Amino acid sequence: MSDLSPDAGRPGVIHDLGYRHFDGAREGTPAIARTLFVTGLRHAYGLGRSGKSKVMPFVLLAMSLLPATIVVGVVVLTGLGELPVSYADYTNQTQLLVSLFAAAQAPVLFSRDLRHRSIVLYLARPLPAPLFAVVRWASLTLAIFLFTAIPTVVLFAGAMLAGLDKSDQTTAVLKAVVLQALLALMLAGVSGLISSVSLRRGFAVVGSVMALIVLTGIVTVLQNIAYYEGDSETVPVALGLFSPWSLVNGLANAWDAGVDTPVPVDGAWVPAYAIVAVLLVAACLLGLVARFRKVGSR
Amino acid sequence: MGLAPVISTAGLTKHYGTVHALTDLTVEVGDGVTGLVGANGAGKSTLIKVLLGLLEPTGGHASVLGHDIEHEGQEIRRLVGYMPEHDCLPPDVSASDFVVHMARMSGLGASAARERAADVLRHVGLDEERYRPMGGYSTGMKQRAKLAQALAHDPRLVFLDEPTNGLDPAARTDMLNLVRRIGTEFGIAALVTSHLLGELEQVSDHVIVLDGGHLLRSSATGDFLQRTGGLLVEVVGTETERDRLGEALAQRGLTCRPRGTMVAIDPPPPELAEGGAVHDLIRDVAADLGLGLMRLQPDRRHLEDVFLEGGTRV
Fold this sequence. Notes:
The complex is a heterodimer. By secondary structure, chain A is an all-alpha fold. Chain A is 72% helix and 0% strand. By secondary structure, chain B is α/β, with parallel strands linked by helices. Chain B folds into 2 domains: 7-224, P-loop containing nucleotide triphosphate hydrolases (Rossmann fold), CATH 3.40.50.300; 228-300, Alpha-Beta Plaits. Chain B has helices spanning 44-51, 73-79, 95-105, 110-124, 139-151, 169-183, 197-203, 221-224, 239-251, 270-273, 277-289, 303-313; strands at residues 7-16, 19-29, 33-37, 59-64, 67-68, 80-83, 157-160, 189-194, 206-211, 214-220, 227-235, 256-259, 262-265, 293-300. In chain B, the strands form 3 sheets. In chain B, strands 6-7-8-3-9-10 form a 6-stranded mixed β-sheet, sandwiched between helices. In chain B, strands 2-1-4-5 form a 4-stranded antiparallel β-sheet, with helices on one face. In chain B, strands 12-13-11-14 form a 4-stranded antiparallel β-sheet. In chain B, helix 3 (95-105) crosses helix 4 (110-124), helix 4 (110-124) packs across helix 5 (139-151) and helix 9 packs across helix 11. The two termini of chain B are 36 Å apart. Chain A binds chain B through residues 1, 18-22, 24-29, 31-32, 35-36, 39, 48-50, 53, 112-113, 116-118, 120-128, 296-297, and chain B through 52, 54-56, 74, 77-78, 80-82, 84, 86-93, 97, 101-102, 104-109, 112, 116, 119, 123, 125, 133, 149, 153-154, 181, 185-187. Chain A: Keywords: Membrane, Transmembrane, Transmembrane helix. Chain A: This is ABC transporter permease.
C-alpha cells in the first residue's frame, strides 16, 4: 500500500500503532437521540451537507424574510401606529413558502435513509426504530418552526424599534409563536409521513405539495363558494377541518390573533378545530412510528 | 469473557408465514472468526437479524455476549457491529463524515468518534478517497466503508454479511485478510457469512453450515479439513505419464484414480501405511518408470465435500 520503508527511528515516519480499542465512556440512548436530533435539524437546512443542498432552504428562508424586512423598514421610517400585517397573518401570507420548505426538506430526513437503506445501519445501533422516527419528526418540526419564527422575530424587532406598544405586541407575538408551533407539528407530521412512504424524492415533494398546498387551496376555494352560495355558516367552518393551514388559521381567528377566515370560527368549533389538529399530529406520528417499525423488522 | 460463548442459540426458529427461514437452530459461537455458510436463502441473514434483535424469533432462545435477544436487544446493539450484505451507503456523504456519524449513533462522543473513524478507515484501507462522496466509490471501496462503520464503535462482535460480495479476486483476498485480522489482531469476534465455502476455509476458526434453515454441521474448521489418509501424486508430463504411474501403482495393490493432473490414492492398506512405506513405494515406482516426481502430498477434504455429504443426508 505505502511505498515508504518502515525504517524505525527515522524522523517523520508514521508508526503503525496497530488496532487500538476504545475504552472511553459510551453515551446512553438520550444522548444518542439528542445527537440525531441536532444532526437532523442541521441537515434540514443543508448544514453539514453539500453546498448544493443549502440553496433551497436558504433561498426559501430569504424569500420569507424579505417582506418582513420591508414591513419593518416601512413601519420604522413612516412611524405607523401598528404593523400592517399581524404576526400570525404574516405566517399565513407566506404559507406557500412554508409549505414548500416542509415539502422540500422532509425527504432529507425521512426518505434518504430508507431509499439508500442506511436505515439498516441505524437500526443495528442502540436507538430503537420508533424513537428514531420520533426524533426525526422532532428535527423537522423545529426546522419548520424556526422557518416561521425567524420572520416573526424580525417583525417584532421592527415593532419595538418603531416604538409600538410593548405589551400589545408581546401578546400578539406569543399567540403567533404558539400557533406556529402547532403548525410546525402538523406540517412535519404530514410531510414526514408522505416522505417516509414515497421514497423517490420527486414523488415525496409532489405528494407533500399536493397535501399542503393544493389541498389547502381547494379547502379555501370550497369555503368561499359555500360562504357565498350557501346560506349556512356551518359548511365553510366544517370545511376548515380538512387542511392543516385552515385549522391553524381557524384557531388564530378564534383566538383573535389577527387572521381572517371566510366565516368566523367560534363556539363549539374552536375545541373541534383544536381536537382535529391534535388528532392529525398524533395520527401522523403513529403512522411514522408504524412505518419505521415495519422497516426495522425487514 | 473466557469460555462463555459469544453467541448461543437454543431451538431458534423463524418462520415468515409458510416460509421456514430458520428451524430449530441450536448452535454456539466462540471467539475468533466463525464462518456461516449456506446457499442463498439458507437463513444466514435471517439469523443475523434475529441475533441483532431486529427480527423477533418465532420460537426458541438466543443470547449474544450474555444478553438475551428478546429483552436486551438495545444492549446487544451497543456491543456489536453489523455490515449488511446490500448497499446501505448514502451517495452524497463522504466515508469520513459517515463513519463519524455512525460512531456517534453508537454512543461515542464527538471527539472520540472522529478519532475512531480515522483509525478504522486507516485499518480498512480507505486513504484519501475517504473525503470523497461515497456515490463515486468502487464496490471494493464501498465494502471497506461498510466494514469501517461496523467497526467504528469498537464492538466486541461483528456480523459481516457477505463481505466479499461483488469483489474481484485481489480485493477478495484483501477483504479476507482484513476479516482474519479482525478476529486475531483486533481481538473482535466475527461471524462471517458466505456462500463460497473455499473462502471461509482460509479465514475462519469454526464453521457453521446452514441448509434451508437447518443446521447441517458446526465444528472447528480443522475438523472439516481433516486428512483423509489418502495421497495426491503428480508427475512431470501429460496425462499419459499420469496414467502410466496410476496403472503401475494399481498393480502394487493401491486404489488409484485420476484427479486433474494428479493421481489420487485412496487410504492404503495397513501394512503399507506403517512408517511411510507407501511413500517409499511411490518413489520407487516413479523411479522405475523413469518419471519425474513433482508433488506428493496428503489428500485433504474440502468444505465442499462436507456440504455435499450433508446435502445428500438431509
